[in-house]
Amino acid sequence: MSAPASTITAVTPEGPEVEATPAKRRRLRFVANPKAATGLIVLGFFCLIAIIGPWIAPYDPSARSSDLIQAPSGRHWFGTTHLGQDIFSQVLVGTRGVMFVGLLAGIVATALSVLIGVSAGFLGGAADESLSALSNVFLVIPALPLIIIVASTIPSAGDLMVALVIGFTSWAWGARVLRAQTLSLRRRDYVEAARATGESTWRIITFEIMPNLTAIIASGFVGTVIFAVMSEITLAFIGISTISEWNWGTILFWAQSQQALAQGAWWWFVPAGLAIAILGTALSLINFGIDEFVSPRLRSSGHTRVKTVDGRSVRMRVGFTPVLGAADVPATPVVRRRRKEEAA
Amino acid sequence: MKFLLQRIAFYLFTAWAALTINFFIPRLIPGDPVTSLINKFQGQLSTDAINSLYVLFGLDKNASLWSQYVDYWGQVFRGDLGLSFTFFPTPVSEILSQSLPWTIALVGITTFASFMIGTSLGVLAGWRRGSWLDGLLPVTTFLSSIPYFWLGLLAITLLAGPGSFFPSSGGYEPGLVPSWNGAFFGSAIQHSLLPAITILISSVSGWILSMRNMMVTVASEDYITVAHAKGLPVRRVMVSYAARNALLPNVSGFALSLGFIVGGTLLVEIVFSYPGIGYNLFQAVGAKDYPLMQGVFLVITLSVLVANLLADIAYLLLDPRTRKEG
């Protein structure tokens, strides 16, 4: 829901340098980025919960009990609902739906954006004009209201349907970025060389262009997953998708409709919301990792103050060569003379 | 001028596309929810109203798709969006004209404010890369990952109890009549503070981040080095040289992501029961009020298009290259 965080619009692949490094080391370098590593670990944790959640849940999420609206305790870690349902189990079981919709919608939207963006950028001409007009239209039309309306016209929208609706409406941003990058890659020498040696268009696209788009595709995928998770939870929260399937939005839906706030039942909506925020943060961190991997300049460098030999500190800045004038050595005579002239 | 005309043509095209989507969605509904609703209100609907609903939802099976489409455009141009089922028998256009000002005031002002605040913080964070401002980035990332509506719920719990300064719902004091006087304005502003803060907190970080990254990129350009070498004050280099150039992609990004932001902020209205378009959409969804849903979608899309056009004009003012003739 936030503004698209990725800034990699024009990436210049540093040809020889990147190719010289072995693939294995490069992958390690991405994981070595603390942001990306944190994000991947958290994402892995949620994926694990998505798989084993229903088995490790202590209670059946829909089972009622006599413990109505109870605060978190040893028996119910996240407390209970108005029907005595265990919220911890609901969160665990609900993870699967959230991850499923997020990943499926991400895959659908990424596939569409690659298809549309790359072909628009590579083919050019009328095809480019019409395809980019199409993606611009989808970009400008507010996606969430559209998703809400489409999903609410479909009777009994399950997880699969919701994922498809989100996927088919949220590919436009990725397509736009991919088109711009393909345009700049299309006229590179190595692509011309491949064309001159008689490679087919499809081979050029899949083997020459696509590998250089990997980072953009990956960050587009992660961005779409964030958006899809948010949209899905929103749909469940306002009660459009089926309430019978548990996900974090469903929990929030019940919390809202049963006036959890007025009853002071903070445990009802805090865990689900925190889970959403943590998952979203993890995905954003992965995206930052990709951004910084592609353009190292963006890394927030921790040590910008450097102590020089004579004990003074200098702030390092991008694009500047720090000038270390020692304290007792006078500045260059040229400058001094000019100052004198001005004074005179 | 050519740039602006191109953009206007594009927005007209998009408006056409949105209206066409709006035309086709109800025709893809399996089953006939609208017919059943019409039957439910059979005794109270006038013949004209039934006809207009028939045209809007394509229930007239005898007419060809093309003539339905032409009729639909005719109705939209007359501002006839059918009757709402939730607020029977008020026309949809009347409901929307009442709630639109609320949404524009809340969402419009806060989105603009969040863009301005985020951009200025981003300028500082990017210019002083590695300072403590960079440490804020993970915090803002976390805040922006929180769904707007959940932050709203949290804000209500923490800040808006009984006896608190912040009201937890509504757009103004229940006893007041909307009019242009001080009491009403004060109440309206008091009611909009909490939703506005919620939107600000979760939307500002996106702008900080994108502006910071643009500043970092721009800071290493040659013209910045030249400006420094000329001996210009650091402040001037930062604002008039670096920030001005870094702002351009951010403005076009602002225009493009308006659709996303507006979608998210509508949910804040739901949580706070704010009398705007988003709350209408929520009510419409709950009651399966298709005419109202369609109307809301149409109005939101058209407002986003107008906002986009304004952002384009801002871009035109900021970037002299687009003013060049030819």
UniProtKB/TrEMBL annotation, chain A:
Main location: membrane
Topological type in the membrane: Multi-pass membrane protein
Family under the similarity heading: Belongs to the binding-protein-dependent transport system permease family.
An example molecular function term from Gene Ontology annotations: dipeptide transmembrane transporter activity
GO cellular component term, pick one: plasma membrane
Highest taxon, organism lineage: Bacteria
Assigned keywords, A-Z: Cell membrane, Membrane, Transmembrane, Transmembrane helix, Transport
Protein location: Cell membrane
Membrane-crossing residue ranges in chain numbering: 36-57, 98-122, 134-154, 160-178, 213-240, 266-290
The keyword Hydrolase belongs to this UniProt entry's keyword annotation: no
ABC transmembrane type-1 domain boundaries: 99-287
Protein name according to UniProt: Peptide/nickel transport system permease protein
Naturally occurring in which organism (per UniProt): Kribbella antiqua
TrEMBL record, chain B:
Protein name per UniProt: Peptide/nickel transport system permease protein
Gene3D superfamilies according to UniProt: MetI-like
Keywords for this protein: Membrane, Transmembrane, Transmembrane helix, Transport
Pfam family, one: BPD_transp_1
Subcellular location: Cell membrane; Membrane
PANTHER family given in the database record: OLIGOPEPTIDE TRANSPORT SYSTEM PERMEASE PROTEIN
Transmembrane segments: 9-29, 102-127, 188-209, 254-275, 295-318
InterPro entries: MetI-like (IPR000515), MetI-like_sf (IPR035906)
Coiled-coil stretches noted in the UniProt entry, renumbered to this chain: none
Topology of the protein relative to the lipid bilayer: Multi-pass membrane protein
Higher taxonomy: Bacteria, Bacillati, Actinomycetota, Actinomycetes, Propionibacteriales
Presence of the UniProt keyword Transferase in the record: no
Any one Gene Ontology BP term: transmembrane transport
Principal cellular location given in the protein's record: membrane
Start and end residues of each ABC transmembrane type-1 domain: 100-311
Superkingdom as given in the UniProt entry: Bacteria
UniProt record similarity statement: Belongs to the binding-protein-dependent transport system permease family.
GO cellular component terms given for this protein: plasma membrane
